[in-house]
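Q: My hope is that you can spare some time for a protein that puzzles me. Underneath my words sits a plain record pairing an amino acid chain with its backbone structure tokens. Those tokens are not coordinates but codes from a learned vocabulary of shapes. Thank you; the sequence and its tokens follow:
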Amino acid sequence: MSNVIRVSKAAAVRLGWIALLLCCWCLAGFGADSANPAVTVMTRNVDAGTDLGYIFAATDENSYVQGMAATLAELQASNFQQRAARLAAEIGASIPDLIALQEVTLWRTGPIMQPPATTILYDQLDQILAELGKANLHYGVIAVQSELDAEAPVPSAGIDLRLTDRDVILARLDLPQSQFDLFNAQTHRYRAVFSFGNPVLGQMSVPSGWLAVDVMANGSKFRFVNTHLQSAIPGLQQAEQVQREQADELLASLLFTSTPVVLAGDLNSNAEPGPESTGTAQHIGRAGFVDAWKFAHPADPGYTWPLFGEDQNSGPVTPNERIDLIYVGGPLQFWLGRAPAILSAVRTGTTAPYGSDHAGLVVKLQLK
């Protein structure tokens, strides 16, 4: 007995139309992804090459002279040219559309005790851009926020050493404007500033800030924000208080924005529970922003710092804090159903030789 099913010509025509409609429906389902385009963002602490610990620990002129010499040696040993190439390779592996960089330091020298020093020793931003260019990766500077600018003599070398700390937003330049447009770039300094006294250096203030740009990606708009909050210092409650005040200033500017927010940066606050957590990262989460890494990896702490000790020569250590973070949304945007969806979150730069003492974080989002 034959198993062939015979249908009339009219039935065959009806089945053909049904198949065509099903095909169109399936294509429309895939088309929803093009209507809700994806965007990739990255946060990366570049590492200034020194944490200035030798200087801050100075208690008299002799220890200061030794501390400045040790700081210069540490800076030179950090070999930023090689680290810039590694950072560019990380960027090339993921091709983020937007990059939030922190601790992008400009180091300059000059005649001793004759400020301001103007001779460039290392310009980390220029070196990163040069390495990206070598790799045929097309990125441009969208915004720069200058923060700490300090100069001090290095008696053993007969020079002044000056650092200018900066946060930077980079963006791809190889996308058509109709597909990826940037506008309203802005920079802000926090009113809350950490200040401390040193027996040799006297009173010093350490300003911090945030910067942002509005993005239109295939018709979907959002605001990309980069910040580097005040570092917590063991035994100094003022530093933690300043960090929380800076976060409150930032939230006050972002909570009721008319567009979805992607907040990236080094928050210097462990997003994982523990005795060293300042609570700032959790405070941002309670304000209605979603921690992208925790959303994508609920059981993985995803520590990003530190990858090595004071400098790379001290060797690798086991990371124990997750302070390099990307948050998505904002309470108003989730209520309106416009918050981006988190598709993936991956760490970069976690294997030696390291590009920085921090790991990077790359998050892929689907816009609405």
